Amino acid sequence: CTVIARNSSMHNPTNYYLLSLAISDLLILIIGLPMELYDVLHSAYPYRFGSFVCKLRAFLVEFTSYASILTISAFTVERWVAICFPLKLRAFLSLDRVFKVIGIAWAIAFTAALPMAFIVKVNRVALPIEDNDDQSWSRLVSNDGVTIMNTDFCAMDIARPGAQKILIYFAFSVFFLLPAVLITVGYCHIAIQLRSADEYLSRSERSNFAKMTRAKKSVIRILVSVVVSFFLCWLPFHIQRLLSISLMDSGGDINPALQTLFTSVFYISG
Questions:
Q1: Are 84 and 189 in contact (CB under 8 A)?
Q2: What totals of helices (H) and strands (E) does the chain contain, helices first?
Q3: Whole-Å CA distances, 94 to 9, 68, 91
Q4: Splitting the chain (270 residues) into consecutive groups of 10 residues, what average pLDDT does each group show?
């Protein structure tokens, strides 16, 4: 924020999109890392922070991750318009419009993440059905009579598998798969446009065009590296979520290979 504010030359759409992305990613780190470190350094059970913190953290992590992907999608469109339709750039990408796009992206992310606050709760491990009448469990049974004491954990409501599936499929489709297609198509079109423009220019024109394309390509390399890093980091997370649906559908008959894959992806995704 300080660097961009003090340098008027950096007041351009790309830098504002990158600033929005940096803020959302920093918030993910601030919100998620302390709790993850606590789980590593202390026993994961029981969850000690209560229902409000459980719901708030889940919502904020989802909200900021959605804001990141929408920001990446927005500046992909900005680069696409700038390179493929340069005559429309001034009207399409004024700073006022960029601020509005970023604001709308964050508003959409906030709204789309709200269901997470309602489905996430503090759960308890259920008492094994076959052992409900076993007296040895009597001291471990919670007041509800169906769960084990001191096994509290923060996660999606295990009693609502249908809602879990809807939310997971929605997040994967709208905030991962669809943006991935958009970004891939956008950068492919940009690459084709730059290459074809170079082929049809004369030698004298190529000299001037080369200077502009070098600047554009340097920006594209930065943006592509950000995009690739983002998707490489978030792909394991979405795979882990999709695998959790398969584990739910399998009931008690869990394929060992699927369980191993789920565990591996779980640790990779953090």
A1: yes
A2: 9, 2
A3: 15, 21, 6
A4: 69 82 87 79 77 92 92 86 73 77 96 94 77 60 72 84 90 91 85 68 53 66 73 80 72 55 53
Contact 92, 59 (CB under 8 A): no
Q: What is the pTM of this model?
A: 0.80
**What DSSP string describes 173-201?**
IIIIIHHHHHHHHHHHHHHHHHHHHHHHS
Q: What is the 3-state secondary structure (H, E, C) of 20-35?
A: HHHHHHHHHHHHHHHH
For residue 92, which amino acid is it? F
* CATH code that applies to domain 2-269: 1.20.1070.10
DSSP annotation of 141 reads B
| Predicted local distance difference test score (pLDDT) of residue 71 | 92
Residue ranges per domain, the chain? 2-269
In this prediction, residue 240 carries a pLDDT of: 80
CA distance 222 to 77: 15
